[in-house]
Amino acid sequence: MPARPLDALATVTIVALSVSWGLNQVAIKAALPDIPPLIQGVIRSSGALAMLLAWCAMRRVPLLSRDGSLLPGLVTGLLFGVEFVMIYRGLLMTSASRGTIFLYTAPLFVALGGSFFLPGERLGRLQWLGLVTAFVGVAVAIGVPHLLAPAAVAGAPAPAATLESTLAGDALLLVASVFWAATTLVVKGSRLVHVAPEKTLGYQLAVSIPILGLAALVFGETVAGVPRPAATGWLAYQTIWVVGITYGLWFTLVKHYSASRLSAFTFLTPLFGVLAGHVVLGDAIDWPFAVAAALVVAGLVLVNRPRRTGPAAGTAMPAKPAGTNESR
């Protein structure tokens, strides 16, 4: 199915998702002192799966029909589960700032993979420039000087701040970004693009539960006591809103719109994460944030600029009509 360019509704929706996912990073950190990260993942996926099943029963969404989506569905579930194991473990070895930078290289891998594997997903030079510009904006927002100062995730045990452990954490986050991109590409390039988004999300939630649970056992995570109300509230936000609702909205967008352009908007997530950290945790916002915002907006404008081609240099042809798939 051809992907449409982003319209106003899709743009507003993906920005709202970016805000939600940015706050989600604060929610994870706020709950960590009471609930270890992988256990958080098990609870989030289990609770969201229960919500999804109830929704599908109420709306009579077919989840068990034979539609050829089983194999790609299991693959996306495996990718999803392993991705989050890598994220959580990587953040224990590298700083949150470094981890965020490496994780949000995922749109670059989506664009690169889409250029090779998805018909119509090729990016022009301006689109590539836009992706790079937005990535530079993310780096500035996080604070490049802070990348040199390793820091542990709040509430988690901090390993020795050695170069080896930092590089190992960086590598895990970078591989996690590849898994994230691969998930998007599998959804876009398989039978999953033709099934209900609830079913796509269901595959990932169901398969990720045993993966995250096994990882929690392997790494010896336990809950020491009854979590405080604040931690429970942050976990509920992650489970009900972020995983239970926004992920389904994301796959609905991926099904109908250009995947490269959608993924480019995920560059906004760490920016909103910085803002959420300021509002919720009292983190300071200085001039690099304003510069970063300008760079990200400029990058998104370039990524969403229609690509023009011509039979000869200097001769521009009209942009392709809506419904063609220039980028994601």
Write up this protein.
This protein is mainly α. The chain is built from 12 helices and no strands. Helix 1 runs antiparallel to helix 9 (229-256) and helix 4 (96-103) runs parallel beside helix 7. The longest helix is centred in the last third of the chain and has 28 residues, at 229-256. The protein is globular, with a radius of gyration of 20 Å. Residues 147-161 and 309-328 have low confidence and may be disordered.
Describe the secondary structure blueprint for this structure.
Elements: H1 8-31, H2 37-59, H3 70-91, H4 96-103, H5 106-117, H6 125-142, H7 163-188, H8 197-218, H9 229-256, H10 259-264, H11 268-281, H12 287-303
Helix pairs in contact: 1-9, 1-11, 2-8, 2-9, 3-7, 3-8, 4-6, 4-7, 5-7, 6-12, 8-9
What best-fitting shape do the alpha-carbon axes yield?
globular
Helical percent range? 55-70%
Number of strands: 0
Number of helices: 12
Largest sheet: none
DSSP strand content:
under 5%
Structural class: mainly alpha
Through-space gap between termini: 14 Å
Q: How would you classify the quaternary structure?
A: single chain
User: Which stretches are low in confidence, meaning pLDDT under 50 for 5 or more residues running?
Assistant: 147-161, 309-328
Question: Could you give a quick summary of the protein structure above?
Answer:
The chain is mostly helical and 328 residues long. The chain has helices at 8-31, 37-59, 70-91, 96-103, 106-117, 125-142, 163-188, 197-218, 229-256, 259-264, 268-281, 287-303.
